[in-house]
Amino acid sequence: MRNRSQRFARKAVKVDHAQNMIMRHVLKLGCEFTSIESCLHRRISKPLFAKECMPHFRRSGLDGYAVLSEEALFATPQNPTCLRVIDEVPAGYTSSKQVLPGTAIRIMTGSAVPDGADAVIMFEQTEEYQEEGEISIRIKHKVSHGQNIAKVGDEITSGQLLIGSGSRIGPGQIAVLASMGYEEVPVFRRPVVGVLTTGSELISVGDPLQPGRIRNSNTYMLAAQIEQYGGLAIRVGTAPDDRDEVARTIYNALETCDMLIVSGGVSVGDYDVMADFFTTMSGNDMKLLFNKIAMRPGSPTSATVINSKLVFGLSGNPGACFVGFELFVRPVLLAMQGIESPDKQHIQAIITNDYDKGCPHDRYIRGQMTLSNEQVKVSVLEKNNSSMLISIQDANCIIMIPAGSKGIAAGQQVAVIPLPYETTMY
Amino acid sequence: MRNRSQRFARKAVKVDHAQNMIMRHVLKLGCEFTSIESCLHRRISKPLFAKECMPHFRRSGLDGYAVLSEEALFATPQNPTCLRVIDEVPAGYTSSKQVLPGTAIRIMTGSAVPDGADAVIMFEQTEEYQEEGEISIRIKHKVSHGQNIAKVGDEITSGQLLIGSGSRIGPGQIAVLASMGYEEVPVFRRPVVGVLTTGSELISVGDPLQPGRIRNSNTYMLAAQIEQYGGLAIRVGTAPDDRDEVARTIYNALETCDMLIVSGGVSVGDYDVMADFFTTMSGNDMKLLFNKIAMRPGSPTSATVINSKLVFGLSGNPGACFVGFELFVRPVLLAMQGIESPDKQHIQAIITNDYDKGCPHDRYIRGQMTLSNEQVKVSVLEKNNSSMLISIQDANCIIMIPAGSKGIAAGQQVAVIPLPYETTMY
């Protein structure tokens, strides 16, 4: 009866217990340097602190004249202050002259404010005129001390934290890195994740359909999920239908991968070779974490640790495979790249349709979250069965339907896990 | 006075009018094919319709026995139905036999249901026994017609829309593409966007600071924004401080780029060469769209069309540059890749802090949106001046503060434009 009894006798663990067990085996990754041109979406591997102030000089906020404020504190159109323009400074240059009483220096946005001056007045509030062959200005508005000058360190003070470890690098981080001189950026090495598929029913994407066969889609879907969270996906191929050959394939893959995901073969079927693998193999170098989870879909989801590396067995059903990845693999990938508590990312939303399928276990279904009129709303996507994949593309969250006989009614609050796959937002 | 009067005489247009003008000049891009392995985050260039049903055969939803339901409609533990097992079918294979009265065929999850059978009963609800050297099963639960069988086309019917044009490819789209046999995926060509920076105050990222000088950060920030929205950024370099030389640089760049962004030099300063360029140059091949917008920050934001290609002049101030990109360049990039109405992506949120800076024009400031207890909340980030860049990394939205003398108070509703840069969510 092919280990059948062992397969049925598995002990289910709770979702958060499974997550906690997994998180104890997160591999610490080294870090590396990447050029600022190629660091988008990588994760910073150590907290970066400012070595300089920004601005590092007194900077003019606009195009105008650097003046002594006390000379024009009470300037009005009737009683203007007149000053001789003694120099002009393009941005990027500094004046060798000092602003003394009776004088002004013409400066540009971003220029260093010359010594002596303590205020900048904008062009639009002055009038230029010529006197004795020299250019002067008439100031008709009162000027206050410090006006239009960014002080040294106004934006960033030397020593302050710029970017925390684990931060995902976007345009804003890149602007900070560039302005602070990071040509090379310290980032976590990308986790290398192998993807192995099982199932004699699988044919290649390029193959024409055959009776009883389907094209392999989990490999590509999982690779995309891995890349979305910063990993490098390695396609290990399709596993043979033999437990020992599968074991060899897995051990081989782990020589080059930091982690391995196997989809399919974890259930109670006769050819569910992964179920055999997880359930019956153990030893000094291999430790089973769990081979059943109290949830739907994906209850046979399994995980083991081989030579300190995590191996996941996800359902071969595409819907269950997708959800299993987000619940169990995503937190590991993020933790490998410096994110603390990556498994606590749920929020509350109002569900907009009934879901009346009761279930003795928590159910994790694909949902579409919308932000409308200040409210977070979520709807259950159609075609949500574990075997179905068509709705995954519209999912930007996973909705948790708590265990119970009744499901949940429209208008109730539900916990959802947001996903980074855009649907209605860009 | 260096065209000073012309610069001050610019006519401001409203933000939505500027967006509408720009959208009339979106360049239509061709499409290309990319392999399914490398299509993540690209955009589908034409609607894809199903050529096959899914499943394309009657598929078993679990591991069990294919039976005739009418034989076990009333099966109970006291009155079980007994059937002889005449074949077993691994997933991917089909049985040459037919399920006839008194018989059953053992099948696996995903297997084709053999002819004759109209229901599948799970292993767990049967008992195997041997009789006269043959394997039989005892069914103790009632079986209903169609149970555990996915009908042909249950998930996808031939001819239905699979993925719409412009859809961004994520794991869900990839699963659909793979299962439907798309080894090569039709996607829009990536828009090639040149980035040119002006400003004699700029030094390279690797250079040590000098008095009055700052490192160029806008080039890298803009390149990251371009890539975020599917574009290919080309760094054109730093423009000379001469109008005609800048013009030559721009015309050269447009030979290889679909669009060009210039940062800096658009204001009223003496060396604001881009202001000159936009304001004074025109001809058969160049048409100014606008050179001033009624908004803060970034009021001198400009756009022109040269030989049917858009050239944007964004503020050199990093905060204003960032916002200007999101408001005016992002919609164009998305429209080039098939998104309809990409400039209408605002939602409503509750602001959590006062913003009491009145302004005669609408103000667009960096915000952080959080989803908490079913509510969409947004807070104004500190260090939000147009010259500041440190807060950009924490911005996952732009808050629109309407024109008025009072700003806006905590608890009020504001319109926000969500951005795809993660902060609190992954």
TrEMBL record, chains A, B:
It catalyses: adenylyl-molybdopterin + molybdate = Mo-molybdopterin + AMP + H(+). SUPFAM superfamilies: MoeA C-terminal domain-like, MoeA N-terminal region -like, Molybdenum cofactor biosynthesis proteins. It is an enzyme of class 2 (transferase). Its cofactor is Mg(2+). Coiled coil: none annotated. Gene3D superfamilies: MoaB/Mog-like domain, MoeA, C-terminal, domain IV, Molybdopterin biosynthesis moea protein, domain 2, Molybdopterin biosynthesis moea protein, domain 3. The keyword RNA-binding does not apply. Keywords: Magnesium, Metal-binding, Molybdenum, Molybdenum cofactor biosynthesis, Transferase. PANTHER family: GEPHYRIN, MOLYBDOPTERIN BIOSYNTHESIS PROTEIN. Belongs to the MoeA family. Catalyzes the insertion of molybdate into adenylated molybdopterin with the concomitant release of AMP. This is Molybdopterin molybdenumtransferase. It comes from Paenibacillus allorhizoplanae. The lineage of its organism: Bacteria, Bacillati, Bacillota, Bacilli, Bacillales.
